[in-house]
Amino acid sequence: MKENTSLLDCTLRDGVHVVGGCFGEEVIKNVIKKLIEAEVDIIEIGFISTEGYSADYANFRTIADVKRILPKKRGGAQISVMSNHVDISHLEQNDGTIDMIRLAFKRQRIDWAFESMRILTEKGYKCSLNPVNCNVYSDFEYLELLKRINEIKPHSFSIVDTFGVMRKDDLSRLYYIVENNLHPDINIGLHLHDNLGMAYSLAQHFIEISSPTRHINIDCSLLGMGRAPGNLFSEHIMDYLNTQYGKKYDTEPAFDAADDYIAPIKRQIPWGYATPYALSAKYKLHRTYAEYLMGKGRLKTKDMQRILSRVESGKAELFDEGYIESLYIAYMSADADSVSFAQMKQKFTSFEEVVILAPGASINQNAEAIKSYISASNACVAAVNFNPGNFNADLVFCTNIRRYERITMSNSQELVITSNLLEYAKGYNYVVPYNSAVCHDDVYCDDSTLMLMNLLRQIGINKVAVAGFDGYKEGTRNFYTDSFEKRQNLSYPAERIKQVLKRYLTNMDITFLTRSQLEA
Question: How does pLDDT run across 377-404, given as a tens digit for each residue?
């Protein structure tokens, strides 16, 4: 029996990052009920907040808020909440409702954590100190932190692998630093993120190397729920402790909670292992860098790796959108070959205007009207990132490697690519520098249709008609074919695109052939 090991289920707390806190009151109550039935040691039900309370959210301002969602009988389960750099001075004296408050803090906010613990201790609360991003501390800095921890003696201290970078050797090194320098009465906790798919094996390793005289707490969540790439699975570690160490967790209520309440959320908002998150761990970066590049929707994994590898160490800990955007632009703006704008300008001089076909769903609904417009005009037809065979496009403009790989060209058509595709392109007629086509005057935007408009503007074409440039809308079909549909909104918001049209392409005569939310 591993008597010195406790499990802390943080589904409702870490899941706040997935659902914006809004689980719904019945889900919150039922998850707690099932975890109590599963005999989980500690249940972390959400965050302490300074905002008003709503029963549907796992955020609580007062003890009374917490009491509203707890069952009358909680078995042997302890109740935990977390605070993350908010003012907790309003919290009432402890009346036994909350067993522990965990204080999560970045290293620049250590004074907040210590002052908050002082306030909470005076009010009778047990506290855990959770310094996030353990990998950003040098060994010397971690030892200095432990000295301060020993001075105030919290109930627990957690090793928090925020970036999901640890391997077994890393965990061993940190654990032994903590074990040999932390006061023996302070519990040691572990919070893992599954960037590298190693959370389960690391939890086992932590249990194996832990001292029998030290109590340890291991964080976990149902189905690994947490901001992508997720956490250690509660179901896995419960079963492991049962089979290997004779613990008595009841996995069936946990399975029920996962099936009935968490799986439906995961189908709508997926989390879990993804290679870009593994790359962010490889380079010890804030995971939002990987998310940002994934959101571009036009990069292969190896492209993301090359960009992430260029992030300077001083920028790794805190996400800097402007900085990663500059790396992205620099990477995408690879040198083009000797084809000049003059050659493309010569191509277009015989046309009065260009009809641009974007891949929005509206081109299916308005196909005949679009064809009639093309027939009645002396127009060049240019498609963006796809080749719609039923419209007989004269050329295809492609900026996106994922779209490029799906395009089949006929002998009579010409292909224009941007320079970021040079590494992948097997054939093309024109190549233009990516950064020259991007709109980055008042408002940066590398939406592909806007890039084509900007390119046409530069070579002297001022009249365009556009179809299928619909704008992205959640909950509807957005593309002309299901194969283009995305699991998340990877497009620029309509307001951003409208700003570019107004400020950057204001001198162009733009006609919308299909209804669009992008029209001014």
Answer: 878 999 999 988 788 899 999 998 888 8
- Residues 16-33 pLDDT 10s: 999 999 999 999 999 999
Mean pLDDT over 107-114 rounds to: 94
Q: In 3D, which of 226, 247, 251 has the Cα closest to residue 236?
A: 251
Region 292-298 average pLDDT:
82
Collapsed DSSP state (helix, strand, coil) of residue 102: strand
Pick from 233, 282, 174: nearest CA to 14: 233
Element (H, E) at 32: helix 25-37
For the full predicted model, state whether its pTM sits above 0.85.
Answer: no
Q: Is residue 343 pLDDT above 80, yes or no?
A: no
Look up residue 360 and give its DSSP letter: B
For residue 2, count CB atoms less than 10 angstroms from its CB and return exposed for 0-12, middle for 13-18, buried for 19 or more: middle
Does one domain contain both 231 and 352?
no
Residues 288 and 350 in one domain: no
Residues 298 and 192 in one domain: no
Count how many domains the chain has.
3
CA dihedral 285, 286, 288, 292 (to 10 degrees): -30
Residue 391 has a CB neighbour count (10 Å cut-off) of 18
Does 373 share its domain with 285? no
Helix (H) / strand (E) containing 380: strand 379-384
Same domain, 316 and 361: no
Statement to judge: residues 403 and 299 lie in one domain = no
Give a yes or no: residue 224 inside a domain: yes
